[in-house]
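User: Show me sequence and structure for the first protein, then do the same for the second.

Assistant: Starting with the first protein.
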Amino acid sequence: MSPKTSAMTTAAEAQQALENATSVVERLREVIERETALVHAGEVREAATLGPAKAELAGKFSACGEWLRANATFLLESAPAGCAALKRVDEALHEVLQRNMVVLATAHAISERIVRRLSGDLARQRSPQVYGASGRTTAPEAKHGQPLAISRML
């Protein structure tokens, strides 16, 4: 579906536009729910494969939103029930997005902690294990550490 740039003129056109927008929002919600479930289960590689579909649907969602906003007054007058239905679907999408952001932020924080811990462990292994003047082992010096290379490819 590609939204038109002209103004809507009939109730049927308004209803069709609302149905199309509702369909796009529902499909986007389904993809995001799937991504959330996969990341939550640790299946990051599989979740990454949903990126293109999510991007395509987000683009359609944006285009639909622009067209609907441009015709908001006509839509509210000619198809109030369709507008209410779209609003409910949009609110459901926002709830799914909130959960998705929490899961993604958690996964990001965990992976960052793992990388930091790994980097610290490698630096400790590579630095000389000596005792300082206080009788305690000294912290690894930056000059003894080597860079940690990470592949961002999933």
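Switching to the second protein now.
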Amino acid sequence: MPTRISMKRVKKGLEPLIAAIVLIAITLIVAIAVAAWVTGLFASITGAGVEKLYIYPNTTLKRIAGVWYFNATVTNVGTINSTIVGVTVGFSYCSNSTNVALGPGDTRLVNVTISAPSCNYINGTTYQVQIITQAGNTFYTVVVAG
């Protein structure tokens, strides 16, 4: 008696639509990783980077013997060197030039003596401060005189 061998169709593998979606997802992930790597590589070769300063909230503006003194603690949280070349306190241009160099991760105390006679600050008043870098960027904070 002959035996019958039943051959059932065996499904193995993924459906074509699911396989296409998986391949596209893998391609996108690889493309994003390559783009991030190339951008980082070209940024390091060309010297491009980000200049960013963090100004701590302990800024002060005090008057001692008729002269105003501005003090601020600043950290370079960017990826390139930064040099502070000027500080302006208030709306009038009462800025003394200063050269404070900050490498990435460096923290420095910025001290500015403001002796211009037109810069009369009022104790208890809040003033906007602009810290200007050699690259032409301006970073802002506020300070209360007194």
